[in-house]
Specification:
The chain is α/β, with parallel strands linked by helices and 260 residues long. It has a single domain, classed as 3-Layer(aba) Sandwich (Rossmann fold). It contains nine helices and seven strands, in the order E-H-E-H-E-H-E-H-E-H-E-H-H-H-E-H. Strands 3-2-1-4-5-6-7 form a seven-stranded parallel β-sheet, with helices on both faces. The radius of gyration is 18 Å and the shape is globular. The termini are far apart. The model has no long low-confidence stretch (mean pLDDT 96). The site of NADP nicotinamide-adenine-dinucleotide phosphate has 28 residues, from helix 1 and strand 2.
Amino acid sequence: MTGLDLTGRTAIVTGASRGIGLAIAQSIAAAGGNVVLTSRTQESADAAAAQVSGTVLGVAAHAVDEDAARRCVELTMERFGSVDILVNNAGTNPAFGPVIGQDHARFAKTFDVNVWAPVLWTSLVTEAWMGEHGGAVVNTASIGGLTLEANIGLYNASKAALIHLTKQIALELSPKVRVNAVAPGVVRTKLAEALWKNQEESVAGATALNRIGEPEDIGAAVAFLVSDAASWITGEVMVIDGGQRLGDAPLFRSGASLGV
Ligand SMILES: NC(=O)c1ccc[n+]([C@@H]2O[C@H](COP(=O)([O-])OP(=O)(O)OC[C@H]3O[C@@H](n4cnc5c(N)ncnc54)[C@H](OP(=O)(O)O)[C@@H]3O)[C@@H](O)[C@H]2O)c1
């Protein structure tokens, strides 16, 4: 239970078949909201919907397929009568390695799913409901969009673009629609397995809170950002990383920073 009230609101969460998206759907539903979960396959969307208690619907929609996205928004309007919340969560990272030398196919897939899709879905829900009635959008970015790292530079560049667009669109849709982003650190999901699976202790140790993130950590923050409790917050990027970006956590824990 989040302590937030989203009763009567309807949310679409893209990429909600597992990981962070599923946890976001569960948090919104726990606060009383209706939730439409998307996945690339109907089977996964249905399986995810079965893991959420509340009024939910699973819909197959590849995030960059405009026809499928439009159908999903129409279906949501028919079924629930509004789209008050959109969480652009679907993300991909097919381009591991240096940016230089990447091929166009990987570049295009990264930017299509991580950058174009949020613009597409936000445009569709604005046209269908939010432009007239208002609403809240949250984009799942990454702390990678705020820094430079080896081997995931293209993914990080796409998340930096998404952060910039979050602010741009927040201004374009103001004052009716609030648009924010979350920027997670390393979270225990399939997408990020290469970043934590065989090195969880050291990755956790580099954070002030001494653990990697769980999908529910992000779900709770998104439920807050789409609720009325955040009604004066727009164009912001909420970093949720256990304090990874604060600095040298092991040094502080050792007491060396105090000279002891
Ligand atoms: N995990 C982390 O450490 C971390 C950190 C920062 C940011 N993020 C971001 O968090 C978001 C969720 O990632 P995750 O870590 O939860 O990954 P995940 O567990 O691998 O889940 C990814 C989700 O996105 C869906 N998806 C992938 N491509 C899609 C597409 N083209 N169209 C529709 N859905 C698509 C997948 O659904 P299907 O496979 O069923 O289609 C799945 O539900 C992403 O935007 C990611 O960049 C993750």
